[in-house]
Amino acid sequence: MTLAALAQRQGRSKGSDTSQEAAVSPERQAVPQRNSISASQARAARRREALRGEQAVAAWLRELSGRSR
Question: How many domains does the structure of the chain reveal?
Fold first, then answer.
């Protein structure tokens, strides 16, 4: 995330005073958090979600085909 986006997120404008920024304590400054989910875990979750969707569509199609008979 860019510094401008961080400042905007925190409610500050791009051209805010540097003296105001210096007054903020180090504990309150936004420090990027490490992502707790690895890329492989995210890919696996997306695959599971896609499979769940495919299975739902397949079940719906089976239900539709059974009704027409």
Answer: 1
Q: Is residue 16 part of a domain?
A: no
pLDDT digits (tens, 9 = 90+) for 6-56: 777 777 555 545 555 555 565 667 777 788 889 999 999 999 999 999 999
Contact between 7 and 14 (Cβ < 8 Å): yes
Prediction pTM value = 0.45
Full domain range(s) for residue 45: 38-69
Give the C-alpha separation, 27 to 31, whole Å: 9
7 is a domain residue:
no
In whole angstroms, what is the distance from residue 62 CA to residue 69 CA? 11
